[in-house]
Amino acid sequence: MAFTERQEHKIEIIPPFSVIQCRRADIVEKDGKEVGRTYHRHVRAPGEDVSEDCQQVQAVANALWTPDVIEAYQTSIAVPPAVDETEENEDILEPAAVEGTED
């Protein structure tokens, strides 16, 4: 009666920036028959460090994450500059300030 453990990986590529989603199955077997399985999922975005990930994720990242893809992804998640609300609201008149309105 020997217990063994192994892992299986399922890789999915999410467009348009080739975000990598990896589902890892940890499988426990007893005498060659599966007796347990648990799942773990993680996501890697273009430009993230994948050196600790499985070989499959590293290979996909190296193939798909060109400098142009990484730059496009970074641009897509960049936070737009804050709008100065005082400038934006200068043209809005309060109802009492509009000529001919009744109180």
Summed up, what is this model?
It is built from three helices and three strands, in the order βββααα.
Descriptive keywords:
103 residues, 3-stranded antiparallel beta sheet, alpha+beta
Number of strands: 3
User: How much helicity do the residues have?
Assistant: 10-25%
Overall 3D form: elongated
How do the helices and strands follow one another from N- to C-terminus? EEEHHH
Rounded to an integer, what's the Rg over CA atoms? Answer: 26 Å
Largest sheet report: 3 strands, antiparallel
- Which segments are poorly predicted (pLDDT under 50) over 5 or more consecutive residues? none
Number of domains: 1
Mean pLDDT: 88
Number of separate helices? 3
What structural class should be given to the helix and strand makeup?
alpha+beta
Beta content comes to 25-35%
Strand order of the largest sheet: 1-2-3
Could you give the distance between the termini?
89 Å
List the SSEs and their pairings.
Blueprint: E1 3-14, E2 19-30, E3 33-44, H1 55-64, H2 67-77, H3 85-88
Antiparallel strand pairs: 1-2, 2-3
Structure, described:
There is one protein chain. It contains three helices and three strands. It is α+β, with helices and mostly antiparallel strands. It has one domain (3-77). The mean pLDDT is 88.
